[in-house]
Each structure stands twice: as structure tokens, then as C-alpha cells.
Structure prediction request, 241 residues.
Amino acid sequence: MKRIALVEDNPDNRLFFRTILSERYEVAEYGNGEDACKGLQEQKPDLVLLDISLPDMDGMEVLRRIRADATLKDTPAIALTASDALGDREKFLAAGFADYITKPILDETILLEAIEHCLNRRGA
Amino acid sequence: MSEDNSWDGAAITRLERIGGRKLVREMLAIVLEYVPKKLEAARDGERAGDLDAIQHAVHPIRSSAANVGARGVQELASRIERLAIDKQPGQIPALLRELEAAFTRIQPLLEREMDLP
Prediction:
């Protein structure tokens, strides 16, 4: 089973994502950026779902740390954000995210397809 | 489901489709406990004149409200978040009172939904 790290501070979002993902993937959850940066080094996930708005450090900073870690730098990350402002997608892709998903998730198949696409691309 | 137009029943239907009544109940239970804490954090931010604290408090309210279809709460939290980001504090106190009132109105509806079999 592929391992997914879910970095999300909102507890109801974590429950929602866990419900969608846990039958297909092994999911480890982190409620803030600091815990995520520590946990990811042990978990070595296949993919990171990363909330952009976190209470301690934002998702962009977490991604910078992932990319700076030799053992994690190639791990694909999908940005989770409540914002759908014009230019967000380009901003997140330019920052190094593999994809970008807006919350709330209205259709879980979009999320699952984005995850599979990233995992398959990594495995290719 | 309520006829209140600040309530979007489709959100509950979506949760039920994904995880059944169990997910609906668990999501509502979390939101009913979590949002009041964030409202308190927003009040603390207001008292301290700390716009970043207000922004960080209302952002998850917006997200939680959207998850359970509390549209009025979601929209007010979104407006406050935008004002806090834009460093325009003038309207924030009045909108925070509106936000608290909107949550107080929707709370019994969420509790009723949570108690459905």
C-alpha cells in the first residue's frame, strides 16, 4: 500500500480526507508544519497532501524543507487550499507542487485521480 | 433539512455519500466543537488588535463551515479573512459579531442533523 502524508490543521478536513483515502492508502496525519517536517523523515511517504494555510509555518515553507531534504526532495506534493484565486495554480506549480486541489472537495474522484497521476508519474 | 438559505444541504448529502451517517455525525461533532474555539481565538485577536491572529482563526472556520454546508458562516468568515489579509480592520468587529450570530443560528440545525439516525 502506498504511503500518503496528510498535513492539515483542520480536524474535520483530516477526518474527511482520511475517510476518502484510508481504504486505498496508508495515511499518516500531521496537524502542523513542524510535526510534518519531523514525521516525514521517518515515514518517507510516496506523496504529501499539503495544506497551504497552516498555523505555524505555511505549506510553501514545508515544501521548501521537503525539497531541501535529500531523502524527501523527490516526493511529489499536492497543495490543498481553500483559495481559488486567479493565478494560484501557476503559483503552486512554480513553487514545486505537482498539483493543486481546492477545498472543500466537491468530487472526491478528482482528488483520487490527482493522487494516482502523481504516484504513477513518480513510479514511471 | 432547513429552509434557511444560509444552509446548503448538498454538503451533508455529499458527506453521507462518501462515509454514510457515521461520517456526517463525526464531521458535525468536530465542527460544533472546533468552530467555537476558533471564534474565541478570533475574539482574542480582535482584543489584541492582531489581524494575523484573526486571519488564522477565521480561515479554518471558513473551511469547516464549507464542509458542513454552513454557507452564511462560510461567507462571513471569508469576508473577515479577506479584510484581515488586506489589513483593513475597520469592519472586522461588526462582522465578527455577525459571524458569531450566524454560527449561533446554525448550531441547532447542525445539532439536529447530527442526531438524525
